[in-house]
Every structure is written in C-alpha cells, then in structure tokens.
Amino acid sequence: MSMDKIVSLCKRRGFLFQSSEIYGGLNGFWDYGPLGVELKRNLKDTWWRDMVTGHDDLTAPAGAPQAYQMVGLDCSIIMHPQVWKCSGHYDLFHDFMVDCRESKKRYRYDQVVGRWVESKGQKVFVTVMPETDDPATEIEPRALKFFNLRAKQADQLVYHGSHASLATISDMATVLAPDAKQLGTLTPPREFNLMFKTIVGAMGTEEDAAFLRPETAQGIFVNFKNVVDSSRVKVPFGIAQIGKSFRNEITPRNFTFRSREFEQMEIEFFCSPESSNEWYRYWRDRRYQWYLSLGLSPERLRMREHDAAEIAHYSCGTADIEYAFPFLPAGEFGELEGVAHRADFDLRSHQEGKLVKKDGALVVETGTDGKPRHKGSGKKMDYLDQETNRKYIPHVIEPSAGADRATLAFLCEAYREDMAPNDKGEQEARVLLKLHPRLAPFKAAIFPLFNKDGMPEVAQKLYLKLKKRFNVFFDDGGSVGKRYRRQDEAGTPYCLTIDHTTLQDQTVTIRDRDTLVQRRISLDAVLPELEKLIEG
Ligand code: GAP
Description:
27% of the residues lie in helices and 29% in strands.
C-alpha cells in the first residue's frame, strides 16, 4: 500500500495535519484533525478500558500466574530535574549527530547510509539522505557527479561491499555527505541529548533548568509509594498512564512515526522478583494479542525478542512488537511497543541514586570524590508483603506503547481500495478505511433518503438518540451512494437510511461498510444492535 495515498487521505479527510502548516510547518510536530482526534481518542480509551478499568482483578487471566490489580495515574510533564539524573536520561539519553559544514544540515550518525565507490584511483564513501527509500538508486548518480562521469560511463565505478551506516566509517575525510559536493564536510559525531530543556520560574538561571519528560514511565516510578499507601493495591499490580512525551529527535520522519511530541501509553507492572519472568512472558504475549484483536494482521505484526547486545544493561529481557509500515522497505518492521523486564532498576535508582553496572552488579555511580554522581531521593521504595512479612523492592515489567504509532499502524492497515456499486448499481472504485468499530471515529451515519415526507424528522430523532451513546454522523447531502462513499473513507462501520418504508413500518436499512450487506431492522432495535456490533 502506498504511503502517499494514506498521507493524502489523512489530510483530505481531516485525520492529520502538519503542525503550524500556514507558517510552513514545524518538523516533527503534528495536529490531529476532527476525524483523527476521534480515532486516537478511541485507541487510547480502548487501551485504558482493556488494560485498566475493564480489567477483571478477581480472576487470573490465561497465561498469568495469578489475579492482579490495575490502577491509573496522570503525572505532570515537567518533573524535578533529579528524576532524570537518577533515571539515567540526563547522562545517557542521547543520539550521535554529525553536522555538514557545506550544507549546514544535521544528521543522525547511525541513520546516514552509504556505500564505498572507487573510480579514477580514489575511494569514496558516497552517502544519501537518511529518508531515502532505496539508497541503491541514488548512490550511483551522486557518485557519477562526484567523479565527473556521464551516465554511460557508469562502468567506470567500482563498488566495494554493500550499503552500510556512516557509523561504520572511521575516516570522515573519505565521506561524501548526503547533500554536499565536496569530500570530508561532516564533523566528527557528537552526543546530543534528546530531552527538551526549559526554565521553570522567572529567574531564568541554569539552576532553574528542567526538562519535558521523554517518557511517562518515571512519573509512575516516583509515585510508587504514594499509590501503594493510598489505594490498597497489593503486589502484583500495575499502574497505567497515558500522556505526552517529548524527544528532540535529530531526524523526525515517516509521518507521525518519529515525532518530537508524541503520546505514550505505558504500564509499570510491579511483581515479586521470583515471578517476574512469568509476568514478562504474560505481558509480552497479551500486548501482542491486543493489536491483533483490534485488526492488525499477523502477516504485518511481529514480536521480536532482543538479543543480548540490544538489551539495556539493567534489563533481563525485552521484546518489541513491530509493524510492517508501508514506508519501510519490504521485510522491515518498525517498533509499536516495547515490553521490557526492568528488574528493580528504576525503584532502586530513585531510592539510592543513578545506577551503573560494575562487575555484573548494579551499583550507585560515584564521582572522583567517591560520592554518588546523582543522589537518589533516600526514600524507601520497598514493599512489605503482609502475608509473608517479607520486604523487597518489586521487579517491574514495562509494556510501553506509542499512541501515535499505533494510530498510524491502524490507519495503514485499514486503508483499502475496492469496487462497490454506485447509485446506478454499477461497480465503481471506492476507498475505505476498514477500522475496527471500537476505533472508528464515527460508529454510524444516519441518512434520510429524501429531505421531505417526514424522513428528516425521523432521522434527526434517531440521530439524537444514538448520539447520547455513540459518536454518530448525520448526513442529508447528495445521493445516498455519495454519502456511503464519504463514510467508507472515514471508516464508519454502519450506515442507517430512513426511507419510505421507515414511515410505514418503523424499520431502517443498516448497511455494513465491509460486506456491503444491507438489511432492515426496527428503529427501536438500532441502539442495542449497534451496541452488540461495536462492543461484542
Ligand atoms: N519507558 C520506555 C520507553 O519510553 P521507548 O521504546 O523509548 O521506551 C516506547 O518508547 C514507545 O513510545 C515506542 O515503542 C514508540 O511507540 C513510542 N515512541 C518513542 N519515541 C517516539 C517518537 N519519537 N515518535 C513517536 N513515538 C515514539
């Protein structure tokens, strides 16, 4: 499926707009339009309902070691700066970047791709822009231009090795930067912290510096004791949070996939150290199934366990749930959610101070003076198990999802083009969004067939009745065929038409977006029927 078509539908129908578009946009920031805001809100509500409020805390779910509780939190975006020092984000949350002295552009070091090309006795690492879909097609013209050759002289280019990241190149003097004419214009890689810095209060000094949170997780960790003391939860239990996070990504790209402002849906699940591996497997599998249950196809969704080299130093296991987004080369997947076993790393960090791994153990990092580099809160983060009278710092399993990436994945999965009958009964091309009814912006649309004979009045009455329960749309403009097409593109799963028969026998037609099947049901049955179809 072409990404261009999805992007164009998103703009045309009001799912997504570039932020500050009238001023030329701001890279890495997006606005959700009238349809997009409903879709994303439905996604977040579905997650919250399935993970938190609708969770059965009396019965152990399939695959879980025992029953557990779930509660929610909504923490502030700006937190005490010490939070980020102890969590490790202050020192370690960075990417490497390179600057081009010629083009004045900045790139993420690991995202620039190139290939060694030799000609006229010179060997050059020719790179292309990070967002290039197929580097192979762009390297050759760049190499020809650099070596001053014409297209028919392409046989004078000798390629060495296959495509590789700039991060594999040690001598920057041999690199032709993505948008440069001269060799060796890139600076050596430099660290770039991804946290957005801001100033709290009127003084404006460096002491008042704070950060916009780069993840919602830390708000949960620092409130662990508050939740235990205030809500009678018992380990094992989970705390969920949905909220904005901010990362000053060097190269935001691929529509909303990598943005600078985005929303996360995170759970920190607290359990005993002995049971943590079982809980890790439970959450990994449960979260994967959640995406399938809402319509992502198993061919495009995969779960990938990290290998040892990829796993963070504190983690005992991490799996990514990944989706084959259409903007990625065939066979490549992009992360939707990470499920990580974080052991007691976070709670201990906020108790003792920033931790580092030394001789296989996690210890508080000290400076040259032997004092902790970043001091913890000193507050006890342990938990007393009343039944066994044992005190311990719980282990944590963290399923961390991106609401914008998931919204994008559901949009990509839903986009279809097929044939459907028009007003004359002839087959005609149509675009539809085959969104799960729980996610669809509008659950139903109500059409009076004609604007006369009492049909609008019946339609309006039904519309107002349904609106109390669901987000529904009223449309009395144009032919019914055209009205169907508009709703198909918006992903509305059901359309209800009020016609002459309605006036006689109080029935309406209900048309299914996907099967195109139309049947008559009584006006009184519409609400319970929609409830059954949408909520199961
Ligand atoms: N607390 C763990 C954590 O934040 P992460 O893998 O860095 O882990 C979790 O982020 C999820 O947040 C990702 O799987 C992704 O869905 C989303 N996410 C991360 N960076 C993002 C960005 N720049 N734009 C959009 N979504 C992003």
